[in-house]
Structures are given as structure tokens and as C-alpha cells.
What does this fold into?
Amino acid sequence: MASLHRDAASAQADAGSTAQQILDEQDIRCITLTVLIDTSGFGTPLGQPASVTATVRCDVDWSDLGLPGTSGGRSVEATFTSPIDRWRERA
It folds into this structure.
């Protein structure tokens, strides 16, 4: 979602809310959700290849599994990179 925006600030804001929405739809509850967005590609001149990279980290509590004897948790992390349209106006 971040790569569809015209500026880094709106890309950053939308990325966090989109990550939370997708996790909610999949009924995944994070103890801590961290969304890091590399929006440096918005500073690239028009016509040059650029991208946005999002890293989403979710700390999951194993007790949510409902299995006897499970405790602790695990951090799950994924990184996604999406190109920015090289001819789209950037703010």
C-alpha cells in the first residue's frame, strides 16, 4: 500500500494501518506490532527506478494457541518491497 502514495508521510501512515488490518482479518493478535517503512525511494527523481520496503514484525504469545503447556512466544517478521511508479508525481 505504501508504494501507491505520492509522499513518504502518507505512505508511512497507511502502511501501519494496513498491516494491522490484515493481521486482524486473519485473527492474528500481536503482543507488539512493529512496522518499519523505508520511504527513501520517494526522494528519487522521476524516471528513475525506486521502491518502498516494509518490514512487519509481530510478537506472538503462544498461550493464545490454547494448547496445554505452551508458554512464551515468538517473533515473526516479514519484509516486502514494492516498486514506485517511476513516472508518478512525488511530493
